[in-house]
Amino acid sequence: MASYKKNRTHIEIFGLERAQEINTKISKTLSKPRETIQCLFCAEDIIVKVCGRRKKFCDHTCALKYRWKFTDTSITKKKIGQANSKPKVIRVCLACQKTYETYPCREESKFCSQECCGKFYAGREAWNDGLTKETDERVKQYAETLSIVNKGHWTGSKNPCWTGGLTLPYGPEFNADLKDSVRHRDSYECQICSMSEEEHLIVWGTELNVHHIDYEKLHNIMSNLISLCKQCHTRTNHNRDYWRELLTNRMVTYYSTKIG
């Protein structure tokens, strides 16, 4: 089996006919209806997707010009004018001893550049380097203060990473045997772009992914699982309602055909 190399096109990996077939299936699945509208600032025609959040400007420059011209920016302009009108302060760099200008808000700065700051502090040892709680009273007091402040604050449900005590987020039944059963049912092909598992091993170096259609990690039944390639699996993390409906209908069609 050929090894995958970066910067290779689909044509180089799969051949012209297979690459065209994959690209056609992906475009049919992912393409949405589009329409032509006018940019709100320059009135140029732009093609946008028909979706809930539509593009209104042809580029970022038109968006900024529109906001600056048609929205109330008097406060912003006033702040910019006040900031530019303040005279700069002259300071002496502690590292190179050269004078430099800085804004009043940075009046307490000590260095003219990051390079000078790095050179000034290079080689300096920290005040607590080599000290322990047993040898230094300041380190001991600092450690005791942290212990009192943080005690019990980051354990159990108070920890931001708490998941309710679950040790297996996918459930024990979501194992290698179940995944292989899903791939076997799907003929070892991605159910969106039809990439085979052999091709997936060449491109990504792994077996096909198994995706939860309803995005519930503990709902590990065959009708809720489907085989996807890595690229298509990544796409399903966006616009979840669309993918949930599309893949659910695909499973309904599969099982109704099988029963019928």
Question: Can you give keywords for this protein?
Answer:
260 residues; single chain; mainly alpha; extended; 10% strand; two-stranded antiparallel ribbon; two-stranded antiparallel sheet; disordered N terminus; 6 strands
Question: Any chance you could write out the topology, listing elements then pairs?
Answer:
Layout lengths: L9 H5 L1 H15 L3 E5 L6 E5 L10 H11 L3 H12 L3 E4 L6 E4 L11 H8 L15 H14 L25 H10 L11 H7 L5 E4 L12 E4 L1 H6 L4 H20 L1
Antiparallel strand pairs: 1-2, 3-4, 5-6
What does this structure look like?
The model is unreliable at 1-5 (pLDDT under 50). The protein has a two-stranded antiparallel sheet. A two-stranded antiparallel ribbon has the order 3-4. Strand 3 (89-92) and strand 4 form a beta hairpin. The protein has ten helices and six strands. The longest helix has 20 residues, at 240-259. The two termini are 39 Å apart. It has 260 residues and is mainly α.
